[in-house]
Structures are given as C-alpha cells and as structure tokens.
What does this fold into?
Amino acid sequence: MAGPKVPPRSAATELAGLLDSPEIARLIAELDQTRWTGRPGYPLRAMVGVALAKSLYSIPTWTRTVALVREHSALREAIGGECPSVFACYRFAAKLRAYSDLLDSCIARVLDRLRAERPEFGRDLAIDASDLPAYANGQRYVSKGGRERERFSDPDASWGHRSAVSTRKGGGFYGFKVHAAVCARTDLPVAWRVETAGSHESNYVAPLLDAGACAASPPRRRRSTWATTTSASTASVRTAIPGRSSPSAKRPA
It folds into this structure.
C-alpha cells in the first residue's frame, strides 16, 4: 500500500514564511531605523524579500531576479505586492554591506534558534569549498597577442581551480570560493567565509572550526569533522582532525 504523498512547499510559501519569522522581522525593523532622511523608497520587506528570492532560486544577477519577481504573482504577494527596481536592488545590496553588523546579528539569531530546536546541530561537520565565478574578465591580456590589461573590473577576484561536476568539466575559473562548514546531520551551514579563488581550502579549515566551535549544543562536544581538500599538502591537517581514515570518527546515525 502506497503511503500518502505530501507535495513540497513552493518557493513563494517558503519566502513568506522567512519574511514572517521573528529573526527576519527584526532585521527589517532594524534596517528601517537607518532610514532617517530622503525619500522612503520601496518597503524594506520587499527589498529583503527580493534578496531572499535571489538566494532561494540561486540567481546570479539582480536583473534576472527582478524579472522573475515581476512575472511571478505569488512572489510579489509574498514580498508585499510591490517589486523593486533593479537599481534599487543594487543600492540595497550596498546598504547591506554597509550595515553588515545587522545582517550578522540576524544570522546569529537564526543559529541560536537552530541550536534550540535541533540539539544535534553542529555535532558533526563537513568542510568544503564551492566555486563562485565572478562576472568579470580575468584575462591577463586585452586580446590575443595584444597589450597587457592594466585595470580589472573585479580586482579582488583571482584564478583558481574547481572540480568537475555533472556535465561541467573541471579546470580553471576566475572569481571566488565559498569555504563552508556544514552540519553533517542537518545539512545546514554552521560557518562560512568568502575568499579569492586562488586561496587553498586547507588554509581555512582551522578558522572554520574556530568559527563553528559554539555551534554544538552544550554540554555536548563535536564528535567528528570531515575536511575535503584537493592537495596532498594537507596531510598534517588530516591527522589532527578525525576523518574517514580515522577509527575514532563515527558517521552520524
């Protein structure tokens, strides 16, 4: 006898739930307090909602995100009925960077809630890096056989290597890497940092462990850590951290 099938929640429903959560609602209220002069602009619920939609749908640009929200009536209703312009979204992204302390506090409140609801959160970690290509030209020369490039549109990006995924072959790419420590039991991120693509994963294993040290619910301690790297130079790191080859490491039940 087949069991009942529950349809997954739509992205619009997930977005509305996130905006109504106490953590995001407090972030919207704190950002609203920074508006002290000038035109009121678009509602902050709409601005934060578009930013969350960009993440939920994994859209790389604000232009495509705004186009999606304008065409999607359920998304427009979830963010309050009004879709911001592309230029407003770029200005809002700059504002989030300027008030990064408010964003960090919101993320900390979300992690505190996760620790309270999921006691196993952060007990077993998996550390890896993902490629984040930049929308910039990283070629050294302006043209083939031409003069050397003097100015780069994204000077913080660099060339790095990424592994093959599905039909995409591995090789060099220009951009950044997201180094993340993820809870192996809940598949939720615990700590992360964005670095240039030329940085190696092994340089950030220890900092990520320090950043995620408070993730395990007390009085329990972290039981195991898996670090995925692409170089044999991390052998000293593997001996200090329980991994797959260590008998003391146990996979989560």
